[in-house]
Amino acid sequence: MGKGYLIENKNLNEAARIFLEELFNNGIIDAVITQKENVKGKGAFHYLLKKDELDGVKPFIPFMPENAASIVSRFTREKPSPKSVAMVLRPCELRALVELVKFNQADLENIILIGIDCLGTYDNVDFQKEPHDFPRDNSRLRSTCQICVTPEPLVADIKLSFLGEENGLWVIPASEKGEEILKKLGYELKDVPETREKRIKEIEEERRKLRVQKFESFEKNFTGIEGFTEFFAYCLNCKNCMEACPICFCKECFFKSPALTWDSEVYLRKLESKGGFRMPEDPIFFHLGRLVHVTPSCVGCGICGQACPVDIEVGLVFNYLSEKVQEAFDYMAGRNLDEKPILTTFKEDELIDLVW
């Protein structure tokens, strides 16, 4: 598992605060974006912070109001950060950010990526009702978190790890930049215990089993046009899932275009040609379009399902289909920065089994 530095503090959020403070004290960063408890204490939202504003940071809180890759994109898309800024992100957020960088929707210049171990997050509404007494029950994790098989960061400069460790938080360099930072901090690195790797494998195996079960259930009940229509039967076509998705970044979106803005005459002409039809119109067309567009780079964060006002498990269908799409192209979204995304790569000999 390599080497790292152990901050001996069983309060993970406090240990993270100590580390961030040391980054400020040593002139390594000018600001940090991380989760911090809001005024009422009901959850922790992302803040851009200076050194004297670190009190109350909670990067390990099991609460995910949005996929923070979108925040990093807004922060750096137009031009790179002029100052050194640390970004503290969950594994799925880092993977989404990697995909955004590939599509020139984010810039990592002067950005230090700090990835944290994550066992999952709880539904936002439920968590805000009882943030301090919320039961740490895995069965109440968001459904996509229950089947997430990447509890550790895949791409980062520095990892903040607690898996397999009972006495504190490991600070692990994960890139040349990360190694230089820890050297500047004067950290004496030692071997990370094998218990970390063992715990990660246990989590992956447990969740892979549940993932297979959920996918088999979905295949049995909801595949084919009839099953797909049933799955989205209560869809309001509000497009909240699209707005929340970090991979839906197009500035000119077909689903927001005049082509789908109809007046009463258009509706009535459609009525004459088709007979009665459902309103809001064409939710299946919308979801099929999004699946084609997003699944090649979907990281399975499930933020789409969290945004749904009628609790459709949108994240389940995207997890299911994105895994199949990415496996077909021997690709994993957000696995590394050098791997070219599916939609930008063409090979004459790909998909032979499907074609023939």
What can you tell me about this protein's structure?
The protein has 356 residues and is an alpha/beta fold. The chain folds into two domains: 3-204, no CATH class; 222-355, no CATH class. Helices cover 40% and strands 11% of the residues. Strands 3-2-4-5-6-7-1-8 form an eight-stranded mixed β-sheet. Helix 2 packs parallel to helix 3. It is globular, with a radius of gyration of 22 Å. The two termini are 43 Å apart. 37% of the residues are buried. The model has no long low-confidence stretch (mean pLDDT 90).
Shape: globular
Helix segment tally: 14
Stretches where pLDDT falls below 50 for ≥5 residues? none
Structural class: alpha/beta
The tally of beta strands, per DSSP, is 8
Estimate nothing, just give the exact number of structural domains: 2
> How many angstroms does the end-to-end distance come to?
43 Å
Query: Could you state the oligomeric state of the chains shown?
Result: single chain
Arithmetic mean of pLDDT: 90
> Largest sheet, order of strands side by side?
3-2-4-5-6-7-1-8
Portion of residues in helices?
Answer: 25-40%
Query: What composes the largest sheet?
Result: 8 strands, mixed
Order of helices and strands: EHEEHEHEHHEEHEHHHHHHHH
Strand content: 5-15%
Radius of gyration: 22 Å
